[in-house]
Amino acid sequence: MPYFLLSPLTWGLLLALVLLLSWRRLARAWRFAGIVAGLSLLVLCMPLGANTLERILESRVPTDAYCRQGDTGPVVLLAGGFEHAPRDAGDFVAFTLESWSRTRAATDLWHRNGVGALWITGGGTYRFKESAMLARLAQDWDVPASALRIESASTTTWESAFALAPSLSGSKARVVTSPWHRARAWLAFDAAGVDACVQDTGSEVVPFEGPGYLVPQTSAIEKAENAIYEFVGIAYYRFREFRNARNVARA
Which of 163, 213, 245, 199 is nearest to 46 (CA)? Predict the structure, then answer.
């Protein structure tokens, strides 16, 4: 789903247009509701609203779903996507910042033990697969090729979890992803029956920093779009989990 369809800016502009064209025909109650909705969307374009969504999203990961210091199972790195189509297998500039930060966190986690497998999952729609390219990047950060495992067929987190489930059976996987993506990732691996925990890689919630917190900003709109996308994804994964459970019950 395109991010602009979930953007508070998109819906704010559409709402403003509807109110402008129909203001005289609207009852007072609908005018009031429209103004409240518009102000709510405006708040989501501010750091105040965007970080509130981020805080709620990150809090959806249960406390016991986080990895503990003594956990030593295989590391699972979820690819973070490309900014643009890679020109060749070594075009690391094509990676998003999320791919870079996730890979750095995953390789650091693997180095703490220096044993076991580092699984990298993610195919994408381009000729050069994300997981294969991230594996080359991991080798540049001193992870030996013998420790790397690649899954390059999946295009979603749900597909990645179910693709890795047979290989991760019997071990506790440590899943590395972005803070805003942890809730959906944990849900997917839990639905796939994988014994997994998510690695705590910090938070993306920015605390109050003065008047600028109440000013609409591009970065806040992007964060709000990400959060809303994740909430929709979580709802969809819950539906898929329910549907799978119902099919199993019928079988």
Answer: 213
- In one-letter notation, the amino acid at residue 20 is L
Alpha carbon dihedral 63, 64, 70, 73, in 10-degree steps, equals -120
Give the pLDDT confidence score for residue 251 in this predicted structure. Answer: 67
* Residue in this structure with the two tokens 């996987």, named with its chain if needed: 173
Amino acid at 161: A
The owner of tokens 């033990």 is 113
What is the mean pLDDT, run by run of 10 residues, along the chain of 251 residues? 82 95 95 97 97 96 92 93 92 94 96 91 90 96 96 95 93 95 96 95 92 94 95 95 83 67
Nearest CA-CA partner of 159 in 124, 183, 128: 124
The set of residues, in sequence order, having a beta carbon less than 8 Å from that of 172 and lying 6+ positions away, is 71, 73, 195, 196, 197
Token digits of residue 116: 């076991």
Give residue 1's pLDDT: 59
- Coil, strand or helix: which one is 173? strand
Domains and CATH numbers, the chain: 3-59+211-250 (no CATH), 67-198 (3.40.50.620)
Please work out, in degrees rounded to the nearest 5, the angle formed at the alpha carbon of residue 96 by the alpha carbons of 94 and 97: 130
